[in-house]
Design goal:
2 copies of one chain form a homodimer. Helix content of chain A is 20%, strand content 22%. Chain A is built from 9 helices and 21 strands. The N and C termini of chain A lie close together (7 Å). Chains A, B: This is PPM-type phosphatase domain-containing protein.
Chain lengths: 497, 497
């Protein structure tokens, strides 16, 4: 466990804000110890690759497109996780993907009077500090610069850790989470009318408060999901605050897998993808957020807030641009509450550009961006206009949960995370085929087998350089995009380190 | 095919409005021929039951709760469809469910210069009139009065027919639907600047207009979906227009199954449910729309339009009401972009009542209503306030499609439609079990077998009257709600009439 980030986050904590209702975010600070602080928005590759300057130059070469993986003899990723990446074929100066893999210790936040402070034991680790570990793998696919992806790869796990710090005791207590906690004195929020109330003295656990008849049960799992969701929001806020000083143009998609207390939480905001391959079966662990998949949310917002369209766009969807001479004809359209199509008479307002336009990889929102969730993009505007894109983007991930304890996993069961560079040219089934094929040719105990899978996935999506560019085995065009892949063995916990 | 509604809709058409961009809706008219016009909001049962006055009285008896089905020797429903219903145990004066089953002829709208008018044949039926039939089954579960459900049961299929009339040629033409149609002269919308344009003379089919490079393909199926979606909207508009004159208080959930050109389109707005049971396998054909399932849509609207909350509600969700003395404590909450839960410090604004509150069948929006899609409810307000509920409700259905031609169906494969009275006490698996059990005890050719299934489903959900009320076989409480069920054989088309 060489990559552990322990109490590093304690120093960072004060700079992150305390969540809704808490203190306003303080000024940003640098990353905690244990990680180098790269110069603002400098090109870099994931720290765990430990590239030498020469290797870094090679990784940055668009013509060779050498596949990068953790080298033999250097640090190994937790659970023998496989990783591989390759730079794009020239579409941007550097590889705008980033990756992170960490084991993070979540230390309970010191509290002057914790609601559970009188309880015994439960999570006392490492010399008396209460807390737990989570494992973390994440891919960030940047656009319009690598700054946002670099910063997110260095900080998102710290934000997740920060969100979990208040939950250390609650998550380790098998009883249902308390609906309400006592006054938070750190937040300085005491109500002067309530100081004499008995349940405010902190020693009395939540159970002493009379329960209401109508009270919704909330699971531990949904607290972790909420923590991850809010961590993405805090990460996005941090990029917003620091974008000027740290030079963070652009944005990034974010896909993170968190292993915590027997469960995988896969959080996705963007168009990367995660799938589990278990006994040959494919289990989707994410879905993509694009102008097409989020059409109704975007149209709904545009309908309610037409001023966001700057008189340039219509919230209706049309199958193509309308020409002025078509006024009065009937054209197919879709409104926000429709999944089907119908004809409408073309009016003056319909001549504006449609909010959502194009299909598949070419679908764009406001003719500008092809992903609708992610981090950053605070300054993104429609070309040659003052229309902001950010109000339509969401930084919130969808989190899917996979309970590792519900199934006996074999060494060939894996979770694959990949940026769209992988999935643009390879579907789930093909990926599963490669995974099974490669794993079969290595011993179950071979520490390199998951790296070999990751490399093979990257090579097969990149293709081979021929006269007519990068070509796949079937002679179709390979992916010219940055490609990054994690292959995480599900038999990991307890088996490998 | 005794229940056909043929050109009846022609007379109704002028009163329905011509869809987006068309004429504003004209004044309402009565229903077309072929159906009796009941007195406004009078209690009635579905016409196809052909109840005598004495039978009607019996159907309206809360103590006996006699199950009603089409009688032997009277009209049979298309495809030998089974139907059964029972009144509630006293929660409302009358049975507020309604049902409709029709075979509807969609006659092409006469056009002075149709875009396809020069083409031959294709759908010329019944003495030269161009058109096609669709089969239609629908359940309407009324609340706060039966008026909306009664009107919807009499008109929704006519609105669907009306929406399809412009599509008769397009749906019968195997080539992709045209993106754009020529000027619609009926709508009186000619642009004086465009009258000399060549493609405006109607004789030139759409293909003559140069196609754009970026043009989205739209399927025939999605045109039917769009037609059904807009028909629900027009139905809702009609209820709004006529609610004063026709005395239509309240609203209704609507679940409709349309069989058209080899496919079932199942449209659901509310908490009724449709499942297909095929070779013992259950295929869900709808999902329920409730404050819980639509939480994020409702919270999003409330966040963007806080004035709709009338200062009485907060868009945040809490697991229970907050007491004023809890100000400053931390409580679990969920915002519109979250699926998980997190703690926030309770502020003054959080003391307002949550927009969504309660769980399961007790979940309510604005403490008022437990369904979030349906028809009607235009006058519904939060109790003792001036806060309208309707802006949060959607009249748009979700439409799912099942292609009947993709599978060889046996006589035991059925589509079951049921109001929530059925599903509150019986799950999908139990329903599938009853279906298979009953069908097994009747010959495949027995014309009554689907009616027997419907009756058995209703009886098993209603239970038997004991000293402690209506009880199921397992002694749990039976459904005290109105219960209505259609059982539609999927081997229907071409096999039965």
């Amino acid at each position: 466990m060489l990559l552990r980030v322990r109490a590093a986050v304690a120093q960072l904590a004060a700079g992150l804000g305390a969540g809704p209702g808490g203190q306003p975010p303080a000024e940003p600070r640098g990353a905690g110890p244990g990680r180098g602080s790269p110069p603002p928005a400098a090109f870099s590759r994931p720290a765990f690759l430990q590239l030498t300057p020469e290797e870094l130059r090679r990784a940055d070469d668009h013509t060779g497109r050498a596949v990068q993986s953790p080298r033999d003899g250097r640090r190994r990723l937790p659970w023998r996780t496989g990783y591989a990446e390759v730079i794009n074929a020239g579409k941007s100066q550097h590889n705008e993907d980033q990756a992170c893999c960490e084991v993070v210790f979540v230390e309970q936040r010191p509290s002057p009077r914790g609601w559970l402070s009188s309880r015994e034991g439960g999570g006392e680790l490492d010399g008396g500090r209460k807390g737990f570990y989570f494992h973390y793998w994440a891919l960030f696919d940047g656009h319009a610069g690598s700054g946002a992806a670099v910063m997110a790869s260095e900080r998102l796990h710290l934000h997740i850790c920060e969100q979990l710090r208040d939950l250390v005791e609650i998550l380790q207590d098998p009883s249902p989470p308390p609906i309400c906690l006592p006054h938070d004195t750190r937040a300085g929020s005491a109500d002067p009318n309530q100081v004499s109330s008995t349940e405010d003295h902190g020693e009395v656990p939540n159970d002493a408060v009379p329960r209401f008849h109508l009270e919704k049960a909330v699971s531990h799992e949904s607290l972790v999901i909420g923590a991850i969701e809010n961590a993405f929001k805090h990460m996005d806020d941090q990029i917003e605050r620091e974008r000027a000083s740290q030079h963070l143009p652009g944005g990034c998609c974010a896909l993170a897998a968190i292993y915590l207390m027997g469960k995988f939480y896969v959080a996705n905001a963007g168009d990367s993808r995660a799938i589990i391959i278990r006994n040959g079966e494919i289990i989707p662990m994410s879905r993509e957020f694009t102008p097409e998949t989020e059409r109704q949310r975007l149209q709904f917002l545009a309908l309610l807030r037409p001023e966001l369209l700057g008189k340039e766009f219509t919230h209706l969807e049309f199958p193509r641009r309308i020409q002025p001479k078509e006024l009065g004809k009937k054209m197919l359209y879709r409104d926000q509450n429709m999944n089907g199509w119908a004809y409408k008479k073309i009016e003056e307002d319909d001549l504006k550009f449609p909010l959502i336009f194009g299909e598949g990889k070419k679908a764009r929102m406001m003719a500008t961006i092809g992903v609708t969730r992610g981090l950053g993009d605070h300054d993104l505007k429609v070309f040659s206009s003052n229309i902001h894109i950010k109000p339509f983007l969401s930084c919130f991930p969808e989190v899917r949960v996979y309970d590792l304890t519900q199934y006996e996993h074999c060494p060939d069961d894996v979770l694959v995370l990949g940026t769209d560079g992988l999935w643009d040219v390879t579907n789930d089934k093909e990926v599963a085929g490669v995974v099974m094929e490669v794993l079969m040719s290595y011993e179950p105990n071979d520490p390199c087998r998951y790296t070999m899978v990751a490399q093979e996935l990257v090579v097969r999506s990149r293709g081979v350089l021929k006269e007519r560019g990068w070509r796949l085995a079937n002679d179709k065009l390979g992916s010219g995009d940055d490609i990054s892949v994690f292959v995480i063995p599900l038999g990991g916990p307890g088996n490998y380190t």
